[in-house]
C-alpha cells in the first residue's frame, strides 16, 4: 500500500532525475515517480533500468509517469497515468496485474468514474497551484482533498504545491501519502530535505 512521502522527479532541476531519486531513496522515501517530458523513450528505459538497480537496496519503488511503453520495457515497479492518458482499464490490460497503477484525479467528481479493481492508488490535486506543472487544473484545496478521500476506497496521495509544513493538513484530510517535487528537487540539500519530510510524516 502506498503511504508516506512520494517524490516526483523534476527534469528541470539542477541535478539529474537519477541524482534526485537516489537522494530521496537514501533519505527513506519509498515511492519515487520518474517524470521527464523531454527524454526519449530509449533514454527513459535506460534510466529506469539503472535506477531500479540502485534504488532496490534502499527499499524504494520506481513508478514511471505516463510512458506505458517505458514502464513495460524497463520492468518498472509501476505506472502513473493522467486523465488524458486513456482508459485505465486499457493501461491495466497492457501492464498486467502485478505492476502498480496510479491515476491522477484533478477534480473531486472524477473519483466516482475510476474503474474498480483496476487502479491501485489515486494522485489527487493540485491541492495548491504549483510551478512544477504549469498546465495543472484548478487547485482543489484541502477541503477538496478531504472530499475526494471520502469518495474513494483507494489510497490517496495528495499532490500540488506541498511542503513539510502541509503534512498535518494532508493527514487530517485522510490522505495516505503526500507527493512533493520542488520541496526535494530544488532544495540545496536534497537528501536532508527528503529526510526531514519523512521524519515529519512519521511523527505527525
Task: Produce a short descriptive summary.
The chain is an alpha/beta fold.
Structural description of this entry:
With 204 residues, the protein is an alpha/beta fold. The protein contains 8 helices and 8 strands. 36% of the residues lie in helices and 17% in strands. The chain has an 8-stranded parallel barrel with strand order 1-2-3-4-5-6-7-8, surrounded by 5 helices. Helix 1 (17-26) packs parallel to helix 2 (41-55) and helix 1 (17-26) packs across helix 8.
What is the strand and helix layout of this fold?
Elements: E1 4-8, H1 17-26, E2 31-34, H2 41-55, E3 61-65, H3 68-73, E4 78-81, H4 88-95, E5 100-105, E6 121-124, H5 141-150, E7 156-158, H6 167-172, E8 177-180, H7 182-185, H8 190-203
Parallel strand pairs: 1-2, 1-8, 2-3, 3-4, 4-5, 5-6, 6-7, 7-8
Helix pairs in contact: 1-2, 1-8
